[in-house]
Amino acid sequence: MNPHALTRRLLAAAAALLTAAGALAVTAPGAAAQEEATDSLLIATNQEVDTFNPFKRRFVITYNTSMMTYETLVRMGTDYEPVPGLATEWEESEDGLTWTFTIREGVEWSDGEPLTAQDVAYTYNLLIENQAIRDWNIDFAGNLVSAEAPDDTTFILTLAQPSPWDVLTREVFIVPEHIWSEFPDPSADDANQLPLVGSGPFQVTEYQTDEFIRLEANENYWDGAPGFDEIVFDYYAETDAAVAALEAGEVDIVNGLNPAQMEALEGQDGITVNNAQGRRYVSLTINYNSVTQDGTAFGNGHPALKDPVVRQAMHMAIDKAALVDRVLDGNGQPATSIIPEIFEQYHWDGGDSLLEFDIDAANALLDEAGYVRGDDGIRTMPGTGERLSFRFFQHADNTDYATVVQFVTEWWTELGLEIKPEAIEQGTLNDMAYLGEFDIAFSGWGVGPNPTEQLGMHTCAVLPTLTDGSERSSENNYCNTEFDRIHVRQKVESDPDARALLIKEQQRLLYEDTPVIYLYYQNVLEAYNSDKITGMVLQPSEGGMITGQQGYAWSYVTAQPAGAADDEGTPAWVWITVAAAAVVVIAGGVVFALRRRKTADERE
Amino acid sequence: MTDSPTPEGGAAPLHDPAPPSGRRPGRPVSKRSTSGFGRYLCKHIGGAAVSLLLVLFSSFFIFRLIAGDPIDQLTKERPVSPEERAALRAELGLDRPMWQQFWDYITGTLTMDLGDSFQYRRPIFDLIVERLPATILLSGTGMVLAVLLGFWIGTRSGWRQGSRFDRAHVGTGLLLYSAPTFWLGMIVILVFARYLGIFPVNGMRSPNTPPDLWSQAVDIGHHLVLPVLTYTAVVYAGYLMIMRSSILDEIGNDYLTTARAKGLRDDEVRDRHAVPNALLPTVTLVFLAIGGVVNGSIVTETVFSWPGLGSLFVQAIFYPDRPVLQALFVLFSASTIIAVLAAEILYWFIDPRIRKS
Fold first, then answer.
1. DSSP letter assigned to residue B274
2. Would B292 disulfide with which of A603, B6, B7, B346, CB 3.0-4.6 Å?
3. Which residues from chain B sit within 8 angstroms of residue A574, using beta carbons?
4. Is the pLDDT of residue A462 over 80?
5. Would you say residue B288 lies in a domain?
6. For residue B85, is it within any domain?
7. Residues of B with CB below 8 A from A238's CB?
8. Beta-carbon pairs below 8 A across chains A and B
């Protein structure tokens, strides 16, 4: 090819591209302006959709879409109390085995069909009769005996064992029988064809993998039409990008902020930040009891950790308030046990058992128990003389944990312990933890309004039966028959106050036995466009969160368009600059091409 | 981490590459060179086939080295009982013996049945088909721009080595090349999307664009500008440097003196005589680039939440979504192996030295 012609073609192509880019910059906002008739609430997300099947979903994002598309019989109130949902009333029988619900009248599915107790019975029967759905929900479904609807407004549920809190708090999303029964296997994805039909405030109508999920408002919603016409979960792989999008007015709600991002957003016009107590705790798990159900020991935890005195001394030598201050920038609370302060009713404040941060007292405890310091300053075990040298594993991808490790290592070194910190990729760390091949490791869970599942991780029943680390239901093989006895009682106690006392007692046992050291509860940092949104109800109602609500999407349903002028668009000077730049580049290109042409002419 | 014009990773086969259609009609070729070409071809196709097989086998085992139980990811939001864990294992096929999983993987891959993703709970084949166009659009556009820009500047830099043009462009190019893509992407987002507001922050489409073809095309084009800009900025220096050194190799040659003696202008000597010769060593690079288009640009796609194969790969690593990783590894490797094979075949025709040896 004639290279000269090639050059010219390249030049032409480049000019065309630049023009196109300029044109796009000009036209696209125009295109976006057309759709102002629809009030969209845009929420940044980064989690993929596992399935829209409400019985098989596992991820938070599909919890949110299910919670808006469908409804439960009993709703979780703004302060985590059970409130009427599709059921207006409910009654537990004397023996706790039979529950009778009165189903709300006049409720319609989003396609206009009436919702009756038959739909409710159909839904619960899926949990009982459909093998795959039952397996996926076996913890709850395994306890169900029968589900019947004697008439259109009565639903009767029979259990094998009393379990009031499971019945009230487990989200069983009621699905429409007239749609679902048409498919041979409701556990497959068949029944989830978009648009979804539900009775909730918003239904999923469109989904583009990792681009966006659209939910349209249900105009016939029995509890009043939502303020926004639609909710769109928009994908932002990086929180930094989501923050930039919030500032640019491209997205309305962003969560999962770190303190630095939060600080940058604070005080900006039209943006409100929300610093709410979270549902998550961060803890240090101690490998003190790697044994199976039948008592076979496994793993290689340090023997000194079996001594409660050592664990307590280590606990006393951690300044949790300092960690909240220095690691979380104050955005959290020091932890006592499993249940964060956000669940006021069940949170245990430590009472008389609360340990003060006191390294001297901790040292005295160890001295008294006979752990004497060797020549190198490291304590040794009485009897065997083994040095107190512990492996301390953290998740490699968590920078907060890295900072915690620095502080804790320093404190524990003052106790005469040798600490060997190591950052390990999370999958490997999990594998090692369940094989018992560690001494101390980070852990942490989000806690739900019903803490039974979390407490259940510390019961003898979930100790592994094998030593291969494949059964992962016990947090770290804690087994205390006293704890188990109370656990059984709290599960069946219908009176909330009596139950709260039992749950606090369980937490006290955990605190004193110290299988786990709970470090802190982490706040949820969120921000939203307050020029556009107003009136969002939080959960809990005082100082609660917007995203991450449980049992009902109060915030999204109550959000109202603020009516303030939408994004006023790009300032004129930007367009002028862009246009000027494009003109200069194109003119330059033309002049250059002409010049070349001229020399070519001269040459011929 | 930097996007590099050469694709990372080994290679793997979906199909054996189709045998080339022999010699071109109408082009007389001597008998001796036909058999030479045949041998040359067999050798390279054989090599590629072996690489593809190795990739196919190793892909299964490599990703089993990533520790962690996929069930942990599924259940990380709430603890579950041993029974529920067992049900999940069975559903994902993790309870079957290793040899059976291996056999299913091999036969599945060869028949394009790649299994289901752990995280998306959908057929991987569908996921790949859905995302391939997005990746080709981004890295294809970026690659073409980077090659054109790199070659254009590289030619002029090499021709006037040490000039102000040369120093300025090599400096700029290398600076961008060494900038972390992630960081550069964020700067681009902040400047053009956050402060100037003339391009969207990320993604490929706005959720509220009207569904007609023109609006959609404009919207995608609008979203494409910043990622392409970032991608091109990071990789073009590679092509620039290769082209520059290639031109430098030609500069002292006698045929250029001859061309000048004929009275040709400097530009003409460069474009008509030096460039064609200098292009030869860059052929491999261009083919590798074409193979790399499929791999996409992992970092750029992640920064801009571009729904392509690169971001799928990143998400699969973090999960870890083993079946997706296996399939993508095989796909990425295969595209590279086939591109390299194509380059080698092309060399036979454009480089006489290979035919002689």
1. I
2. B7
3. 196-198
4. yes
5. yes
6. no
7. 302-303, 305
8. 211
Per the structure block, which two tokens stand in for B243? 């082209």
Q: Does B191 touch chain A (CB under 8 A)?
A: no
A contacts of B130 (beta carbons < 8 Å): 209
Q: Is residue B68 part of a domain?
A: no
Structure-derived torsion over alpha carbons of residues A522, A528, A533, A534, reported in degrees to the nearest 10: 40
pLDDT in tens, B137-165: 999 999 999 999 999 999 999 999 899 99
A213: left (phi over 0), alpha (psi -120 to 50) or beta: beta
DSSP for residue A101: E
User: Distance between CA A465 and CA A461 in Å, rounded?
Assistant: 10
CB–CB of A603 and B196 under 8 A? no
The CATH class, in words, for A278-523 is alpha beta
Q: Is B4 exposed, middle or buried (0-12, 13-18, 19+ CB in 10 A)?
A: middle
pLDDT at B354 over 80: no
Percent of chain A with pLDDT over 70: 87
DSSP state of B20: P
User: Which residues face A40 on adjacent strands?
Assistant: A230
What mean pLDDT is predicted for residues B276-292? 83
What is the chain B residue with the closest CA to A471?
B82
Chain B stretch 37-96, residues whose beta carbon is closer than 8 A to a beta carbon of chain A? 66-69, 71-72, 74-75, 77-85, 87-88, 90-91
B110 reaches A (C-beta below 8 A): no
Structural domain for B163, as ranges: 129-356
Cα(B127)–Cα(A137) distance, integer angstroms: 27
Asked if this assembly's ipTM is beyond 0.95, the reply is: no
Report d(CA B269, CA B260) in Å as an integer.
7
Collapsing DSSP states into helix, strand and coil, what is residue A186? coil
Whether domain A40-252+532-590 has CATH 3.40.50.11600: the reply is no
Which tens digit of pLDDT belongs to each residue from A326-378?
999 999 999 999 999 999 999 999 989 999 999 999 999 999 999 999 999 99
Q: Compute CA distances A468 → A329, A433, A564, B60, B226, whole Å.
A: 40, 11, 60, 22, 49
In our burial notation (b when 16+ CB lie closer than 10 A, e otherwise), range A287-322 reads bbbbbebeeeebbebbebbebebbbbbbbbbbbbee
pLDDT bracket for residue A590 (50, 70, 90): low
- pLDDT for position B294: 80
pTM metric for this prediction: 0.85
Domain boundaries, chain A: 40-252+532-590, 278-523
CATH code of the domain covering residue B348: 1.10.3720.10
**Which band of pLDDT confidence, cut at 50, 70 and 90, is reported for residue B13?**
very low
- pLDDT tens digits for range B320-339: 888 999 999 999 999 989 99
Whether the pLDDT of residue B39 is over 90: the answer is no
